[in-house]
Design goal:
The protein has about 600 residues and is an alpha+beta fold. The protein contains 16 helices and 30 strands. The two termini are about 35 Å apart. The chain has a nine-stranded antiparallel β-sheet. Strands 2, 3, 6, 7, 8, 13, 17 and 18 form an eight-stranded antiparallel β-sheet that branches. A three-stranded antiparallel β-sheet has the order 24-27-28. Among the domains are: about 5-235, Beta-galactosidase, Chain A, domain 5 (Distorted Sandwich), CATH 2.70.98.10; about 255-270 and about 500-610, no CATH class.
């Protein structure tokens, strides 16, 4: 599937090797106007080549004969998930740069085609910790027509087929406008060990010099075969994951979203949270579990089982029965992720009939739930949270007390897991859920919309049982858990549509105190920005209520153009409150998962309508 876009520094493309090597490639590089030499660089320090969470390369420079391939002469950008291409018009000559990451091992190839005799290629390796390490942590050598460099325990071997290579040892300080806009002014340094002349350049990476050389040789000696193998993998994925609707635009967007969603992986399965500062990490428990619904929809149950197993381990549970919200480094700051974990574990067991998996984890889940019931659930049935324990985890949105989504997830888990536990513990879960359901009455609020009173759930009850009655999307999790009666659900969906819906769903209605129209940091993070992760929760309930086209028009369609034309296959973490782009990751796992889930629900709805 060939995709083409006009060059733009605002957009980027995520290319991967299927196993933790990521290249976040800007559609167009920029000139650094703050440097006298006005060098070519990336708009963001998070663009470049990453291996897990380690940035390996900033990028590279290329000169065709005597003409630099620069932002000013770039003509187009194309990609198809196997390669990415940038086309240039250098002094009237057409030149194409092709970038390829082979599947399964860390390496990259950059090739040039067109009207030139040779390319002078200069790679830039990331050494951002230049001043916190000894000079001995950096090394470079040239022998046998190839260069090998080392930087903080990661090594790279590079060369081409001709071996025309010259030492350079050039260091550059980097400044990135997009990050400066985020008040990120930390120093960044890059190192160019050499220049190489040729037409195709190979770089292999490894944890030892020997491993880097092996990966370099593997790519160099098997280049065409590796490209064919990757093309076949992408074709297989595209064929396997399709929507059966008559909407070609939606079908293409779905395929692209799936391809990028399955790229955000650690060791082949665990979804990382996203690109940029999330690139290659092991993910957050909450993000992973919310994203897991897309694995269910895609039929990737074996992968889902593997992901659940990575989190459901005794060493991941603390003394309060809470599971780690991060694995590396381990941390136990969040609480709602534990409830999402139990929800997905129960859903997996019932969807697949894999009772053996649940039996293996039952004692661990029981121990956690007993502590939650005994230590966190009060006499009225409400489950308490400490500050910063929910996804709204900044100092500006502490949410101490009883958040609505925590109550809904707890009720859902109790009802779901009662089907899987023995009768004695199932009775305890059912009793706890019964009083918790009654306690939901305390959250009910009312607001006027068009002269009509509409009911909804407050975002939070404080420890003193006072309502924080701001209109937020957290009540959509209650709808998603199925714990809301039809009349109240209808009102919540109307209020969401009229006051919160945009490209994503606002975390605060515009008429609420504290609403931000633009994302300016933690102060605005959960106070107005539009989050696509909630779109599927609203879309599913609208479809269930018979409003299929409303669900499509409001919660699916607004994202399609971004997926197809902006960041191919990408949906960002959030948009500004006014719907414009914000300085955030462009490929966010739970945003993509939400779109995938919405599409599958829409597909089922239109299929039912066709049959009827």
């Amino acid at each position: 599937m060939r995709l083409q876009a006009k060059p733009s520094p605002a957009n980027d493309f995520l290319l991967n090797n299927g196993d933790n090597l990521f290249l976040l490639l800007p559609h167009q590089q920029i000139r650094n106007q703050r440097h006298k030499e006005k060098e070519i660089e990336n708009p963001s320090k998070y663009q470049g080549l990453f291996w897990g969470t380690r940035k390996l390369m900033e990028g590279w420079f290329a000169i065709a004969d005597s003409h630099a391939l620069a932002p000013e002469n770039q003509a187009s950008f194309q990609a198809d998930f196997v390669i990415a291409e940038k086309a240039y018009n250098a002094n009237g000559k057409k030149i194409t740069e092709e970038i390829f990451l082979p599947d399964g091992f860390p390496a990259i190839a950059i090739s040039y085609y067109g009207e030139f005799s040779s390319i002078t290629f200069q790679p830039e390796f990331d050494i951002r910790d230049r001043y916190s390490h000894n000079w001995t942590d950096y090394s470079s050598s040239i022998e046998s027509g190839r260069a090998t460099i080392g930087s903080q325990g990661v090594f790279a071997t590079l060369g081409d087929s001709g071996g025309d290579i010259s030492p350079l040892h050039q260091y550059r300080y980097k400044f990135y406008p997009q990050d400066y806009d985020r008040n990120d002014i930390a120093e960044r340094w890059c190192f160019s060990p050499c220049t190489i002349k040729g037409k195709r350049f190979f770089i292999g990476f490894g944890n030892t010099p020997e491993e880097a050389r092996t990966n370099y040789e593997r790519l160099r000696n098997n280049y065409e075969e590796l490209k064919m193998a990757k093309s076949e993998r992408i074709r297989t994925f595209s064929s396997r994951f399709r929507l059966k609707t008559n909407n070609d635009e939606l079908n293409r967007a779905f395929q692209l979203a799936v391809l990028q969603f399955l790229s955000l992986q650690f060791n082949g399965c665990l979804p990382a949270s996203g690109d940029r500062w999330f690139a290659g990490d092991k993910g957050w428990l909450r993000d992973s579990m919310i994203s897991l619904e897309a694995y269910f929809e895609l039929g990737l149950y074996d992968k889902a089982r593997q992901i659940l197993g990575l989190w459901l381990r005794k060493e991941n549970m603390n003394g309060e029965g809470v599971f780690a919200d991060r694995l590396d480094p381990p941390g136990w700051r969040g609480f709602d992720g534990t409830l999402w974990l139990f929800r997905r574990a129960g859903e997996y067991a019932l969807l697949t009939g894999d009772k053996k998996f649940f039996e293996e984890k039952a004692d661990l889940i029981r121990a956690s739930l007993e502590q939650i019931i005994d230590k966190r659930q009060n006499a009225k049935g409400l489950v308490r949270c400490k500050p910063y324990e929910t996804w709204m985890d900044t100092e500006f949105t502490p949410r101490e007390g009883f958040p609505i989504e925590v109550q809904a997830l707890f009720i859902y888990d109790c009802l779901l897991l009662a089907k899987l536990f023995d009768e004695r513990f199932a009775d305890k879960l059912l009793r706890s859920s019964a009083i918790a359901i009654n306690a939901l009455q305390s959250f009910k609020c009312s607001a006027k919309l068009g002269g009509v009173a509409r009911k909804y759930f407050a975002d939070l009850l404080t420890g003193e049982m006072a309502k924080y009655s701001a209109l937020t999307p957290n009540q959509l999790i209650a709808l998603d858990c199925g714990v809301v009666d039809e009349e109240l659900e209808a009102d919540i969906l109307i209020l969401t549509k009229e006051k919160l819906a945009g490209k994503g769903i606002r975390t605060l209605a515009p008429d609420e105190v504290g609403y931000f129209e633009k994302h300016v940091g933690d102060g605005s993070y959960h106070r107005g920005n539009q989050w696509p992760v909630f779109n599927s929760m609203a879309a599913k309930r609208e479809i269930k209520a018979g409003h299929t086209e409303r669900a499509y028009n409001i919660y699916i369609y607004p994202l399609i153009s971004d997926i197809l034309a902006k960041n191919f296959g990408g949906i960002p973490e959030l948009y500004n409150g006014d719907g414009t782009d914000a300085p955030v990751p462009h490929y966010q796992a739970w945003s993509l998962a939400s779109f995938i889930v919405s599409c599958k629900e829409y597909e089922r709805a239109v299929t039912r309508q066709t049959i009827l």
